[in-house]
Amino acid sequence: MTSPRGARPGAPRSTPPKVHPADRGATRIADRVVAKIAAQAAREALAALPAGPPADAAPPHATVTVHHDIARVRISLELGYPADLAAQCAAVRSRVALRVEDCAGMSVPEVDIDVERLHPAQVGPARRDRLR
User: Fold this and answer.
1) Neighbouring-strand partners of residue 71
2) Phi, psi dihedrals of residue 24, rounded to the nearest 5°
């Protein structure tokens, strides 16, 4: 009697040849997935700032171009003002580059930031009196 696969019962199974890990294939991460990682990292960086993100600011948006294992990232965001804009952008750049490298395993040589809008700080009563 033969088994359903046509092999004799009790016969040794043939094992597939060992394939070197580098020859097995590759994992490709879609650009839109890397963009979502970058946008989330930008949100986290803004939330970690002392002033936090402006209350009425739109969430950061990221576009990414991936070539081999190199990701070029562009982040569009809105920032509070007056504040140290350079420090805010540096914090976002750093967080985005680290997060994309950690999560996607890609090198990030540049993170371009487009500041789409500046949100003025809330004017309190004391400040309002001085402006009159």
Assistant:
1) 66
2) -80, -25
Interatomic CA distance for residues 27 and 9, integer angstroms: 38
Q: Give the sign of the dihedral formed by CA 28, CA 106, CA 103, CA 33.
A: negative
Consecutive H or E run containing 99: helix 85-104
Q: What is the pLDDT of residues 12-36, one digit of tens each?
A: 777 778 888 777 777 788 999 999 9
Contact 60, 77 (CB under 8 A): yes
Query: How far apart are alpha carbons 79 and 32 in whole angstroms?
Result: 24
Neighbours of 95 (CB within 10 A): 20
Q: Tokens for 128, please give them.
A: 């309002």
The separation between CA 117 and the C-alpha centre of its own chain, rounded to angstroms, equals: 21
Q: Which two tokens stand for residue 89?
A: 């952008």
Phi, psi of 5 (to 5 degrees): -90, 0
Q: Which two tokens stand for residue 72?
A: 């070029």
Concatenated DSSP letters for 50-72? SS-S-TTPPPPEEEEEEETTEEE
* pLDDT over 90, % of the chain: 60
